[in-house]
């Protein structure tokens, strides 16, 4: 009897990493389906208050490799020229009047509303999160993701992934305490050209901001390779030069 | 009935789609850009008639309060052609005060840039350099005009310089190296407030991003100002805490002290050190705390400041008794390069707490700022409310309450209280 239990235990041990690897494989595919590893894109962020009032921001972003992202505010004029840089877990904000980049943290928000810096300067999910479990449903995988370190903005994510398209449908973001911080809804799948077909709209709501909603709209997302020097503090005031 | 419902649903769906439409082509890059802001600020200052610095400034025209209206226009623009860019930011100000009207026009920045590739830039002209990681003070800001800790984010006027910037990125612990050499000439009409004419000052900053820590090394050659070296750092500890620091070594410093009898003595030291330590912490309730300690190595000791204030008291008494203001005028001249300049003391603490969007009110940020002289324990505390809910409009109300004993830094400032209302419209 005992050898049988031992064999069963060994089989389970052998199977468990395969499950974990499977979740991480799905996550990597989700990352690549959402965006090429290196790209440029334009986004509009809309914060909607409970009374319907809106505030909009337009950003130009470029990303390179697994963990280098930069975003430049193009509109409104009060925010024009602000630029944020992320290198792995390091984040900086450049404000033209201040004249030098200052370090910011992932949980802060440079735009107010429900989106924080980690949402705006998002790197690949697989860089920040490890898939601890996969639940298979008829149309979706549900990935249970755990932050790889304590510098990641959300401790856990629960990600609903469309089985056929391998694109996220919904993500719930949780704090270490288990508190639901926000929910992201991915909508409006669109062909951006160059083989990129992904949701063009991400809506966010949060129990911490009852009645408020934030929306992120994507445009002109395309593959682009840039030199590493672009992703540095000294280059932040010149990000506008990258736009064609 | 069904048709009407379907039509309404279609209209609603179309409205929703239109509400969230975005076409980035309307944000195409243009060869010429123009923007900026116009600001109206109204201030009321309640004056402290017993304070030494009040007596220096108001002995001829006593006032118990001042009203000040300031209209500022800061237009800025960029002109691009290939690898060349011309950047300008002007400052036009009209200032209506109870006693007089002042106006000023200047360029805060006006410079040309040559950027052949992302790793190299050459700039020439009037450029505001900002060195250091401190929020309220920057002891390593060797080639910039002094920051006002009450308004650390305010745009400042640059010096006319020639500067280059090399950036190199790597894989591994050392991710970025950037070198910024600077040449700053001083002539009768260029950079005259940096020192006397006839010097070409050389400075440099070396930036490293090493093991997720920003590190800068700075240097200013012996020229108009004595040779100085500096280093700063900044790094994040977790997702909500940042720590930073600066250290500067300034050679051959001279400091003029005035005793209670009015005798001025110049104290020379081989070198002094100034440093700053600070942190920025974001709580779970979205309160941002900024705490900094600043050691100003060339600042006045508490007893040196007290001696100067005693001298002003004596000079003021002499004026009241005899009408002779010679001593007061001399004290006023001495104060400009001494206790009346920003941060004249030796040890300071800065504490700022700002609460983002309390009670779920978006774009509403109340804050409280404390600046204290840690030697004489005098301080300024400033509550403020900032509202940015209307696109391109910033509304701010702020009050300053100064407190300190007689002969203390904030106790001898000309005003006891100040309230300001500010509206800034971006275009």
Task: Please render the helix and strand layout as text.
The complex is a heterodimer of chains A (244) and B (427).
Chain A: H1 2-34, E1 39-48, E2 54-64, E3 68-75, E4 83-87, E5 90-94, E6 101-104, H2 117-120, H3 125-128, E7 129-136, E8 140-147, E9 156-162, E10 168-174, E11 180-193, E12 196-206, E13 209-223
Antiparallel strand pairs in A: 1-2, 1-13, 2-3, 3-4, 4-5, 5-6, 7-8, 8-9, 9-10, 10-11, 11-12, 12-13
Chain B: H1 2-19, E1 32-47, H2 52-58, E2 65-81, E3 84-97, E4 101-117, E5 120-127, E6 159-169, E7 174-186, E8 199-210, E9 213-220, E10 228-236, E11 241-258, E12 264-282, E13 287-295, H3 302-322, H4 326-336, E14 347-355, E15 364-373, E16 379-387, E17 393-403, E18 415-426
Please, could you describe this protein's structure?
The complex is a heterodimer of chains A (244) and B (427). Chain A starts with a helix and ends in a 21-residue tail after the last strand. Chain A has helices at residues 2-34, 117-120, 125-128; strands at residues 39-48, 54-64, 68-75, 83-87, 90-94, 101-104, 129-136, 140-147, 156-162, 168-174, 180-193, 196-206, 209-223. Chain A has one domain (2-242): Clam (outer membrane lipoprotein receptor (LolB), chain A), CATH 2.50.20. Chain A is α+β, with helices and mostly antiparallel strands. Chain A has 3 helices and 13 strands; from the N terminus they run H-E-E-E-E-E-E-H-H-E-E-E-E-E-E-E. Helices cover 13% and strands 52% of the residues of chain B. Chain B is built from 4 helices and 18 strands. Chain B has helices at residues 2-19, 52-58, 302-322, 326-336; strands at residues 32-47, 65-81, 84-97, 101-117, 120-127, 159-169, 174-186, 199-210, 213-220, 228-236, 241-258, 264-282, 287-295, 347-355, 364-373, 379-387, 393-403, 415-426. In chain B, helix 3 (302-322) packs antiparallel against helix 4 (326-336). Mean pLDDT of chain B is 92; it is low at 8-18. At the A-B interface, strand 1, strand 2, strand 6 and strand 13 of A face strand 6, strand 7, strand 10 and strand 11 of B.
